[in-house]
Amino acid sequence: MLLTKISAAFATVLSVSSLSQAAAVPVEKRESDDGVQINDMDILNFALTLEHLEVAYYTQGLNKFNATDFKDAGLPDFARGRFEEILMNEQTHVDTLSEALGANATNPCLYEFPFTDAKAFAKLSAILETVGASAYTGAAALLSDPTLITEAASILATEARQAAWVKSAVIKQNPWSLPFETPLDLMQAFSLASSFIQVCPYSNPDIPISTFPALTVSTPMNETRPGHNITVQFWPPMSYFESSSSNMTSSNMTSSSNSTDSGSDSSSSNSTMPSMEPQYFLALLSGLDKHFVPLSPANTSQSAYLTYEWTAMLPEDLKGTVFAIVTTDDTMAMDSNTIAGVAILDFPFNSNGTLIMESYGDM
Ligand SMILES: *[C@@H]1O[C@H](CO)[C@@H](O)[C@H](O)[C@H]1NC(C)=O
Ligand SMILES: *[C@@H]1O[C@H](CO)[C@@H](O)[C@H](O)[C@H]1NC(C)=O
Ligand SMILES: *[C@@H]1O[C@H](CO)[C@@H](O)[C@H](O)[C@H]1NC(C)=O
Ligand SMILES: *[C@@H]1O[C@H](CO)[C@@H](O)[C@H](O)[C@H]1NC(C)=O
Ligand SMILES: *[C@@H]1O[C@H](CO)[C@@H](O)[C@H](O)[C@H]1NC(C)=O
Ligand SMILES: *[C@@H]1O[C@H](CO)[C@@H](O)[C@H](O)[C@H]1NC(C)=O
Ligand SMILES: *[C@@H]1O[C@H](CO)[C@@H](O)[C@H](O)[C@H]1NC(C)=O
Ligand SMILES: *[C@@H]1O[C@H](CO)[C@@H](O)[C@H](O)[C@H]1NC(C)=O
Ligand SMILES: *[C@@H]1O[C@H](CO)[C@@H](O)[C@H](O)[C@H]1NC(C)=O
Ligand SMILES: CC(=O)N[C@H]1CO[C@H](CO)[C@@H](O)[C@@H]1O
């Protein structure tokens, strides 16, 4: 039954392994950052996946909240009418992309959105529009047909206008973050979008994009500030553990259980765990800049292999919307060295450029 929640099946539908679907729109294939071969049809279907999600978002929100609900939530009188216009924009994007893809167009999925009132609906819409703008910005480099690049840029600009309108006119915060929009690659954008997707029709085309393991922020929104420590949650990858401690036999494992409870015994620690604990970094994607800060286990007496809660000091100079991922080194933020993500941080600022405390993510 379609309503069954099957995230595993969804992951399979979008698995990297099945690339058998051939190109229809253009034939040329380009390599994404993680080496997966994708073509323009895949990119358009990816864009269509995001547009379907947005149509569902505005349809559900506008069905759920009437003019009185908007007013009661303290939103401006004009807001609901503009959200209706946004819905029409998104529906037109869906129609245009579907027409270009013909029989290969992907169909809508089932979605679950966490809004409980009109204000939360408005705030989350700003995040969706920003992710949309960032996804189109990142995907532009992967398109090969110049006509499609212009069409995608044209959609991108509208998504960015919509984001700016929600952020400024409705939420009364900064309409933009920095002089540059932050590009997200396909896997990063899809990791964000897929958190709202419950299940997709099996007949949908196989788009070769997968998702990262989850990264969540556990610091309360009002205490997540530049220059302060942030606590995030993710599991270090098992594969990393296995490859660094390759061919650890059961006798090695046995000795490991002896020495873990005596952390001071460093001479035996190398026969138990790999001698070097892994070092992870929080990569903060902000405009065209990438900031890296080291992560340490939040509980300093825990091994980095077994830690779920991590802490890092956020750089002082972050502003606006920032995307965070966890990487294995501090020089690049590619899919190949990303182990968890994507989390969204927001540091809204007023017209004097001063950070303001209330965040649109604070729902
Ligand atoms: C759909 O894809 C198939 C193969 O992937 C291709 O042969 C066909 O032309 C495509 N159809 C359209 C309408 O693009
Ligand atoms: C709007 O919806 C609320 C429930 O959310 C309902 O109580 C109210 O009567 C509705 N108002 C109008 C004008 O339909
Ligand atoms: C954040 O909010 C919580 C309650 O919502 C409050 O207890 C805490 O003091 C706030 N922190 C700051 C830094 O304002
Ligand atoms: C931030 O975390 C570091 C270690 O990760 C710790 O040494 C420092 O005291 C923390 N700072 C604050 C303000 O909590
Ligand atoms: C323990 O693991 C190391 C590799 O990390 C291996 O070289 C060694 O032979 C193993 N010891 C035993 C007793 O299997
Ligand atoms: C581990 O502990 C067992 C008994 O608890 C002991 O026989 C064994 O020698 C210990 N191994 C190491 C490497 O300390
Ligand atoms: C463990 O590491 C220390 C240096 O950190 C080294 O002197 C020692 O030989 C190592 N022991 C084993 C069994 O590899
Ligand atoms: C930190 O980790 C150690 C070892 O796992 C555990 O004994 C201790 O209770 C933890 N401390 C906190 C505050 O969770
Ligand atoms: C910006 O700064 C001016 C002059 O310092 C001040 O009057 C104004 O209230 C500030 N605006 C905001 C939104 O803080
Ligand atoms: C990394 C490594 O050394 N892997 C080896 C583990 O052991 C198997 C056989 O036991 C080898 O085939 C791997 O090369």
UniProtKB/TrEMBL annotation:
Protein name: Ferritin-like domain-containing protein
Organism: Schizopora paradoxa
Keyword match Signal: yes
Pfam families, alphabetized: Ferritin_2 (PF13668)
Keyword Transport: no
Region of interest (Disordered), residue spans: 246-274
Record key words, sorted: Signal
CDD domains according to UniProt: Ferritin_like
Signal peptide: 1-24
